[in-house]
Amino acid sequence: MELDHSARYVTNDKYQVELRRKEEGVRKTFEDWAVGAVALVLGAFVVVVILLFSYFIVKQWEKVALIRLGRIVKIEAKAGIHFKIPLIDKLYVVDMRMQTIQLKGQTTITKDNISVSIDTVVFARVDDPEKVILQIEDYKDAVAKYAQTSIRDIMGKYSLDDLLMKREEVADAFKDKVDELSKVWGVDITKAEIQDISLPADMKRALAVKAEADREAQAILIRADAELKASSILKQAADNMKDPNAMQLRILTAVSEASKEAANTIIMALPLETLKYASIGDLGALASINSSAARRRVEDREKQQ
Fold first, then answer.
1. Are 194 and 254 within one domain?
2. What DSSP element (H or E) covers 199?
3. Do 89 and 55 contact (CB within 8 A), yes or no?
4. Which stretch of DSSP H or E encloses residue 223?
5. 49 & 88 share domain
6. Strand pairing category for 99-109 and 115-126
7. Model confidence over 105-127: pLDDT tens digits?
């Protein structure tokens, strides 16, 4: 009985040991699987993150400089997807489109010491992306600041009248002045325009008075020129009228024009010289005799009364 009891006890212990061994094996297998799954998930996450940070897109109107460890490795100009090394490579995007830089209310003094306010606009775009990155921090701000000083320098070389009449010439000189320095930064100034020139109120009144005086003087000159031409033509006509035939034709024309309406009675008082030139001197003499006789009759009648 005691031997059988001991054998059972030993068998039971072996069974428990075997059971614990199996449980530990299952637990170890599960732990290994869990660790592998976590590692797989973390690895996939790292791969996704690396992929997300290892590519970049270049737009059609952009150029992207790839900077690796502080140096420009290359400048991507082709639009599309490009790759980089995450956490090492950095990107610097340069917009290649035309940029508009406006300068409003720039007060300056002209050559004849007149204060004016000028609004200008500068059209610029990047010509060399590498120079823009290496030579200047903010090219828009730099161009605007330099344009402010340049516009004052240029306007000081022109009088107010030249500034108003030669705006294109002033704008070209302004553009060349700004473009001279901006080329060093890799920026091309394509065009510069003067939008508006504002004058003080008293200067506007003075210019209005001057313009009115100029218009009146011009009108007087035009009238004088017209009178000079008319007098020259009248002189030629008077010279032509010395011919008796011409004078007779002129008289007949005047009578014809005046007698277009039959109800009108025309009385013409002509000098004897005109009648003589018109070859109707006898009619003039007769008219003179008749007028003398009539005058005598009137005088006799007054004496009788």
1. no
2. none
3. no
4. helix 201-241
5. no
6. antiparallel
7. 888 888 888 888 889 999 999 99
